[in-house]
TrEMBL record:
InterPro entries according to UniProt: HAD-like_sf, HAD-SF_hydro_IA, HAD_2, HAD_sf, S-2-haloacid_dehalogenase
Gene Ontology MF: a single term: hydrolase activity
UniProt superkingdom: Bacteria
Lineage, uppermost ranks: Bacteria, Bacillati, Bacillota, Bacilli, Lactobacillales
Keyword Hydrolase: yes
Name by which UniProt lists this protein: Haloacid dehalogenase, type II
Keywords: Hydrolase
Pfam families: HAD_2 (PF13419)
Length: 209
């Protein structure tokens, strides 16, 4: 019996907030509100992911930063982009991620990481989990970003026949809804509400058979 648990990477296994905070801090250099820079960047990033032509994530970050700067009337310095790249590579897993992954393996599930990030960037983060995923599927592999149905169809093709597939994620638009549309079971983590039924990865583990 083949059982699979797939995971979104950022917001689910990795704490992405320090990365976006680093993007926001660029605003300090140009006397622009950090939140405005951060929010504008996130809008540009998401829009670029949804455009028709695929762009590798490391390049997409650069374009999103330049578009943010253009909209907010400042010019990106090469050191700004370097700082953002560094912030991405040093992102840490949530504290319960390694234990949760271990426990899921112990329950007999294969583990699969599904990420919008590119191969050259994701490995620096994955090594911190100290976990051997059965598969890591990136947007670069698919040439499309989540929530594209093409991404989820590609994953299904790569997994082959599966008796049980559960996708664990935080983002409803990028992960939960398209995973449900693909016919997968889902567990949504709500890290903003400590009283939520599933507020952590360990809570998600408890939901598995």
């Amino acid at each position: 019996m083949k059982k699979v648990v797939s995971f979104a990477g950022f917001d689910t296994l990795f704490n992405v907030q320090p990365f976006y905070e680093a993007v926001g801090r660029i605003g300090n250099r140009y006397d622009i509100d950090e939140k405005k820079v951060r929010d504008t960047y996130r809008q540009k990033e998401r829009a670029l992911m949804q455009q028709g032509e695929f762009m590798k994530y490391s390049k997409l970050m650069e374009v999103a930063l330049n578009e943010t700067a253009e909209e907010l009337n400042f010019t990106i310095d090469p050191s700004d982009f370097s700082d953002v790249l560094i912030a991405h590579t040093v992102m840490e897993p949530f504290p319960d991620a390694p234990t949760a992954l271990y426990n899921i393996k112990e329950k007999g599930y294969e583990t699969v990481l599904l990420t919008n990030h590119s191969k050259d960037l994701i490995q620096a983060n994955v090594v911190k989990l100290e976990h051997n995923f059965d598969q890591i599927i990136t947007a670069e592999d698919v040439q499309a970003y989540k929530p594209s149905a093409r991404f989820f169809a590609y994953v299904a093709q790569q997994l082959g026949d599966v008796d049980e597939h559960v996708h664990i994620a935080v983002d409803p638009t990028k992960d939960i809804q398209p995973a449900q549309a693909a016919g997968w079971q889902v567990i949504q983590i709500d890290r903003q509400d400590d009283n939520a039924k599933v507020a952590s990865l360990m809570d998600a583990v408890d939901q598995l058979g």
